[in-house]
Amino acid sequence: MTNFNLTVHFLKFDKIAEPRRVTIDDGLLLLFLLRTHARSRDQKDAQRRSRLDSNLAGTIGHRTYDLCSVVLCRTGDKFDLDNQRTQMSVNIGSYAVESSHLPRRKSRTRNNMGDPVQFFEGVEKLLEIWFSSSDKSKLSPDLRKIPRKELDTLMKIVRCEIISFVKNDQIDAYLLSESSMFISKRRFILKTCGTTTPLLCLEHLLLLAEQYAGFTGVEDLFYSRKNYKRPELQMSPHKHFDQEVRLLDSLFPDGSAYCLGAMNRDCWYLYTLSPLTKAAKRTALTIDDSDQTLEILMTDLDPEVLSIFTKEECLHATEATKKSGIDKLIPNMVIDDYLFEPCGYSMNGVTKNGCYMTIHVTPEQDYSYVSFETNVPCASYKAVIEKVLGTFQPGKFTITVFTNETSPTRDTVEEIKQVVQLGEYERQDLQECHFKSCDLVYAFFCRFPS
């Protein structure tokens, strides 16, 4: 096998991103999609042009090009060179990375009268599904067997697009034009903001899980979201939680819906399967089945922090990630990040053992919002929570923690129940739920009055 290295600078919206070291294996074709710019450039812009290493210059001549993208493909694959949404895909170590050039974040929507509105709903709709199979003839069922083209079709139903991904042996993590998607062997997570419609893809997803992945049933499902800032701008069935519940009930007869927090202020909605009853018994779990999720939903954020996530302050996502301190929140993460035009930020991080972290920032001051989520196991989430709050400095925030019986993070539930004050924040609400497979604690905090 013949290997060679190539250093590539990726140009996004005419702003240079971080260089990446790429290793290409023999048997794969590295296809450069290049374009020249008709308009003139000043000296500063010329210096920022991407350049090819001298060992490859001869393959395309010695002329300097702007690099739109790089596509790693097998010989015989065909690509539309006239398609402006060009893509690149490269192998970096044991991770695969793909990105594409997409339009700016959709910050304009329309009200009920059809008039344009300058607004972006940062609040995400979070769907998590654990699949199961009763068909013993299906060998090694795995959601990651679903082809990429089918995932693209699925995202069209949701009204968003895949813009990049990282993956390893345990998990595939996709950045979307509106938030994130994570796919592991039998767990599917879809988190989408804006006016997306994730519940409309459910029926198609169930078909794909059976057709390609070999799963015949759903073991557990969680659908949750915070209350919207502008619910009237959402698309059906996401205008009201009652609409969402009716759709979910039509697919899952054993589901139950909940609202935690003050319904007339800040609250959090949840739909899940088979709540624990006196007649129900928990399945015996082993340490390998341990699972936990921490989510922090933040509003009323510090303007100086928010300015980091704009193109006026940072040229590219890596700069925003480092300048904000996001890269230090949880160590040993492979980070895939994206800074939208003119503002907005998304990142996914994954570890070798399949854990994830994801952050999404809506930096417009009038409707600022940041979400943080991770399933990294640890004895306590207190230190992580304090780091996140120090990074984004919200005026108020919601914390939810899911843990199952074998999770090493179960102590966090007790910690949150006992905490009345967290730094400069005061707890306003606290609720608990006990479900078939896990326990939940919900807490809402506000900054002390000045």
SS-derived structural category: alpha+beta
Q: What is the terminal-to-terminal distance?
A: 65 Å
- Runs in which pLDDT lies below 50 for 5 or more consecutive residues are 1-104, 278-287
Number of domains: 2
- Distinct helical segment count: 9
Task: Give the C-alpha Rg.
Answer: 23 Å
Percent in strands:
35-45%
| CATH class identity of the largest domain | Alpha Beta
Give the averaged pLDDT, no decimals.
Answer: 78
Oligomer kind: single chain
The proportion of residues forming helix, as a percent range, comes to: 10-25%
Per CATH, which architecture of the largest domain? 4-Layer Sandwich
CATH topology description of the largest domain: S-adenosylmethionine decarboxylase
InterPro entries: AdoMetDC-like, S-AdoMet_decarboxylase_euk, S-AdoMet_deCO2ase_core, S-AdoMet_deCO2ase_CS
GO molecular function: adenosylmethionine decarboxylase activity
GO biological process, one term: spermine biosynthetic process
Pfam family, one: SAM_decarbox
Provide structural commentary.
The chain has about 450 residues and is α+β, with helices and mostly antiparallel strands. It folds into two domains: about 5-95, no CATH class; about 110-445, S-adenosylmethionine decarboxylase (4-Layer Sandwich). About 20% of the residues lie in helices and about 40% in strands. A hairpin with a 4-residue loop joins strand 12 and strand 13. Residues about 1-105 and about 280-285 have low confidence and may be disordered.
